[in-house]
Design a protein that fits this description.
Blueprint lengths: L1 H10 L5 H5 L4 H5 L15 H10 L10 H11 L13
Helix pairs in contact: 1-4, 4-5
Length: 89
């Protein structure tokens, strides 16, 4: 899913890697996204973490759409967490 890809781009691991490493069920973990850990969230814009969480919602009727994600991320992409401007995507 897009949420898993975004998580992997930010943290360089799958949101379920820690579960797998502990020997627990990835299938069960995928059904409980509230248990996903978000390390170092302070280094990312809070809206980006919100989008990531919204894209990892199990219920597709409650999950953020690609259009909604693009709108939010488009507004986030112009500044780094330290406030410096960067090229918008």
């Amino acid at each position: 899913s897009l949420g898993c890809c975004l998580y992997a781009l930010c943290y360089f691991v799958s949101p379920f890697d820690l579960v797998y490493e502990k020997g627990n069920s990835v299938a069960l973990a995928a059904q409980s996204p509230e248990k996903i850990q978000y390390p170092d969230v302070k280094r990312f814009d809070p809206q980006l973490v919100t989008v990531m969480r919204a894209l990892l919602v199990v219920d597709p009727t409650r999950r953020m759409s690609i259009e909604e994600a693009a709108d939010v991320v488009g507004s986030v992409g112009t500044k780094r967490a330290d406030g410096q401007n960067v090229m918008a995507v």
